[in-house]
Amino acid sequence: MLSEVRFDGVHKIFGAETAVEDLNLTVNAGEFLVLVGPSGCGKTTTLRMLAGLERPSYGRILIGDKLVNNVSPRFRDVAMVFQSYALYPHMNVYDNLAFGMRARGASKDLVAQRVKETADVLGLGKLLKRRPSELSGGQRQRVALGRALIRQPQVFLMDEPLSNLDAGLRVQMRAELSRLHQRFRVTTVYVTHDQVEAMTMGDRIAVMNNGRLQQVDAPETLYDNPANVFVAGFIGSPRMNFVPGRLASSDGRTSVAFLGITTPLGTGSRLTAGASDGEVTVGIRPEDLMWRPAAGPDCTLTLSADVDVVEPMGHEAYVTALCAGETVTSRFPPRSGVRPQERVDLALNPARLHLFDAQSGITILQRPPAAGAETLRSVGEARTNDSAGGRSERHGQPEARRVPSRTEEIS
Amino acid sequence: MSAVQARPLAGDKLIVVPYRKVSAAAMATNLVLILLGCFFLLPMLWMVFASIDSNPDWAIRIPSPTLANFADVLGRADALSSFRSSLILAGTTTVLTTLLALLSAYPLSRMHIPFKRPFMLVILFASGLPVSMLVVPVYQMYVYLGWLDSLYTTALFLAASSLPFAIWLMKNFIDAVPVELEHAAAIDGASTFRILREVVLPLTVPGTAVTAIYTFINAWGAFIIPFVLTYSPDNQPGPVEIYNFMGSHGLFKFGDLAVFSLLFSVPVIVLYLFMSRYFSGAFNFGGAVK
Amino acid sequence: MAVVGTLGPRLDRERFQWSSLLMLAPGLVLLVVLFLGPVLYAFYIGFTNLALVGSRSRDYSFTGLENVARMLGDYVFIKSSWLTILFVVGSAIVGQSVLGMLLAILLRNAVVPIRIVVGSIVIVAWVLPEITVALIWYAFSQAGGTLSILLGHGGTNFLVLVPMLIVSVANLWRNVAFSMLVFSAGLRNLPSEVLEAAEVEGASAWRRYRSVILPLLRPTIVTNLLLVTILNLSEFTLIYAMTQGGPGIETTTLPIYVYQEAFVFHQLGYGTAISLVLVLIGAFFSLLFVRASRRQV
Q: What is the pTM of this model?
């Protein structure tokens, strides 16, 4: 039943616009793949091509082993949750759920049984007689989900399904979607522009920009080793700091100069083959740029900066400061007492630097994988080690890593 | 304004002054509207009063009530046959127009059709062509085809002349049904026919009703087409009959004329009330001419 | 993007679905046979000397611009064109639109019972069959009718004294609801923040309407003018039923002249030629308005 999905050199062109360009991507059977990127990056077009709502201009799309380029949505055996939910407004919840099964000629008994099961899973049991207009946003979202679940399709497609919910409900549904995926293990392609959703839900994340696939990797890998400046800037909040730097080698040791300081590259990091001395872009995540008094012993570098803005977030504070003519953001502990105009010392672990080619924006530094484990917890929840290559072990390993909590009682 | 208002008296004054101003303007507004309402009501009122007056005149007057006029009209064979003719004419036109408009509007709204835009513009332009232009050629055609003096062939032409606007109206209604619903149904595995029957049609019921009622009201009042295309007394619909009576001074009593036109007006008023709930959307032309 | 050229034929060219033709076919057939056909036929007949009866009813011929030449020398035609323009500009463009806008604005600000009652009366006037409107306005304007009594001239038949004015007002009375509904919908769709902003800035009601609401309603106004012009240009029933174009030719607008030439004087060819002029006037006004709507938004 589990099916793999493959995009093979897929392009989609609308008039003069290339929405998707040469997409090569495999979604593994049973995997939860998140397609993420800014609006207009081609992620929704990609999903619609997979659903059969758009046909690719060039290339091939395969579901399982079947070429589906010219297969109408009706025969693709995929289910989709729309951003607008697209519930049939003239049918009650029961009929909305039953529509797909009836269309496929299921018997009345089977339909009734599956509707009941699905409604139970989603807590919709008491709402079956209601019309969509009589439901809350969260309830509509569940019906849309149920309509997809009931069909037991080969592939789930979700187009920003949580974007119309308020913040609290979104967090709750995020956990619920993860829990459902663990339970049913249906291959899922999930489109979002929200990097937090991507990080917390995806087995792997595919980042798109301007119609091109930028990187596909497990969340940790994406975070620790972004392939280019775009991915580095898109994943992580607040955004990674980018400052100009210079790479110089002598006696087999390479050092980088930036923000008025010079440091040899950290141990364990390797420069890629394409790297050469000269202009580079240095990337520093705000959480790696710490307040000196709060920094650990491995933060061997110290930068002096003038505080510009302090944004207290409760559990921490974002401090924007001017350092050697560059504006940088750093994460401070909540009650540091630092004020604007004050001069502060910032600390940095040289092993945490990211380096990118100044022209192409492509990374030139391979960093050790384990280093990301700690920072990830602050983004979502802890994950077991995962790398791009380690995904095959996933199916047999029912994970306890996500925290499925169903606290919502639907009213 | 400071946040703390220490003396309530000052606060009262602040509220009262603009309130009076507004109420003066509102008085004027409502007064002008009442006058305008009288201007619209008076001519109609004559019809209502004259219909129950035993000895009506051209002027409005307090009627000396009687139902004799109603009895008169309902006893006239020509009056009843004109109702029958109008019903056949408007009914046939409405069924034909609505059905064809629905069938044509769906592909025009949803499917890929070459030259769709120019086609829609031609449709829009066609709905504005004066019927006077078509009367002569259609008369010639009907003479040639031997179609004159039949309510059904007359309805066929009425349907053709009301179809462009009906298609245009219907297409706007179908456009308003979110295409995502059809996508969802397609992904759910529904066939094109099932999507049409179970998703699109139920959601276009209000639009279809508006189109049908609009067509019916127009066909019910149509004058020049049946006036030119039918001639035998049995086939004269209401408007032509009323026109004939208006011309035959003395043969037809004022009161009877008032009753006839009153009875003839009631169905369309009822139909309009029925659809007015859905109708406001039809006037959202906005920048439709772009 | 440069790669695209080397990828071979596009796979997503729109495919024409035969089912769409199947659905379009019945409507198309009816339109082609009974609409497009007559339109094209009218363009032919308009340049012939076809007559309703007599030898010319069978043995007619193409006469080129003869009908046009005849129009230019036809006093009735010239008077009739003038009356048509008077009718459309006076009754429709100015009267119907201005009163429609006024009603829309007043009703918006009126108290609920008055809004409902007056709004309904105006709409009923519009829904009434045209022939009924013709009858009640005929009665209203007769000697001894309500109008003459209200004006204190009991013996005056206003339909004879000022026939064009009476049919114009009757037409306005009937059609104003259309403009009112269009403008009400337009007003409802205005972004309320803009109006509130104008109010907060202290603009007077008059100023708000003149400098904020009217410019925002511009597309609606242009659309209304276009539709109202086209609908009124071909107005026949109301005028014909009230006056048959009389007294004399005082209310013979072009649609009525077309009918009389064709079916009273039996000049089908000439009558049709006049109807083509009507189409030309309609096209001219449409272009004017479409251009006006494009100038700015």
A: 0.79
